[in-house]
Automatic annotation (TrEMBL):
Biased composition regions of type Basic and acidic residues, renumbered to the chain: 25-34
Ranges where the record places region Disordered: 1-51
Positions annotated to bind ATP: K149
Taxonomic superkingdom: Eukaryota
Gene3D superfamilies: Phosphorylase Kinase, domain 1, Transferase(Phosphotransferase) domain 1
Name by which UniProt lists this protein: non-specific serine/threonine protein kinase
PROSITE patterns according to UniProt: PROTEIN_KINASE_ATP, PROTEIN_KINASE_DOM, PROTEIN_KINASE_ST
Length: 279
């Protein structure tokens, strides 16, 4: 028995040495892997553009959240001031404030709700393209009217239009301007991709030209100026439209212009443009 014990005692240090040796080898291997990080210069322009778009999206999302929080505080402050000035009992004031909080909570829950095609009532078709269509739709919960762009994913793949659609979606999500059509949300199912956008009841500039035949000098100057502002708003975010035409210039209910249809838009890599080329 004693001999067996002494043999085990002799064996244990060797096992410990082997274990420590294995740990050391593993550590050295990890160290070797850490010595070969991917060089930043090897990143493609597409990756850089995706990173920039994601960064801009997160910043816009954060700003929107902070804006909503500030507006919520302001609404509460205004209500508290009105209640303080009015002849309302303390109990009624508390009840009204609780009612406001409940409504705000319901609104925030609706904001977080994952949208789907079943949340909308489909109305008139207002446009049809090679791999999709645009319909007027009404959100069932609020009754608000939007334009739903419905794109068939299999056709997008077959025609090689995936990158164009992705660029359109990224631009609409990234650029916050009154000069372009607004994107409210996007979602998809197994067959289609859906973009829920601002509905503009004024038609397009092509229809306006056909109806009026000739614009006055003031009207032409007004629409040219708003078109320039719209193009500038996307150039600031390093995108080019590549399909400017009267059909893609839509009018809102007040007659102001919005640039639309970014299916051919392309991110512009400004690092390849030589300084002074436009001087």
């Amino acid at each position: 028995m004693d001999s067996a014990r002494s043999w085990l005692q002799k064996l244990q240090p060797r096992d410990k040495m082997r274990a420590s040796s294995r740990k050391k080898n593993t550590f050295d291997e990890c160290k070797d892997e850490e010595k070969s990080p991917e060089d930043d210069e090897s990143l493609s322009n597409t990756t850089k553009q995706k990173v920039a778009a994601a960064k801009q999206y997160i910043e816009n999302h954060y700003k929107e959240q902070m804006k909503n929080l500030q507006e919520r505080k302001e609404r509460r402050t205004i209500l508290e001031k009105k209640l303080a000035d009015a002849d309302v009992s303390e109990e009624d004031q508390n009840n009204l404030l609780k009612f406001l909080e409940k409504k705000e909570t319901e609104y925030m829950r609706l904001q977080r709700h994952k949208m789907g095609v079943d949340d909308f009532e489909l109305l008139t078709m207002i446009g049809k393209g090679a791999f999709g269509e645009v319909r007027v739709c009404r959100e069932k919960t609020t009754g608000h009217v939007f334009a739903m762009k419905k794109l068939k994913k299999s056709e997008m793949l077959r025609r090689g239009q995936v990158e164009h659609v992705r660029a359109e979606r990224n631009l609409l999500a990234e650029v916050d301007s009154n000069c372009i059509v607004k994107l409210y949300c996007s979602f998809q199912d197994e067959e289609f991709l859906y973009l829920i956008m601002e509905y503009l009841p004024g038609g397009d500039v092509m229809t306006l030209l056909m109806r009026k035949d000739t614009l006055t000098e003031d009207e032409a100057g007004f629409y040219v100026a708003e078109t320039v502002l719209a193009i500038e708003s996307i150039h600031k975010h390093n995108y080019i439209h590549r399909d400017i035409k009267p059909d893609n210039l839509l009018l809102d209910r007040y007659g102001h212009l919005r640039l639309s249809d970014f299916g051919l838009c392309k991110p512009l890599d400004c690092s390849t443009i030589q300084e002074g080329i436009f001087q």
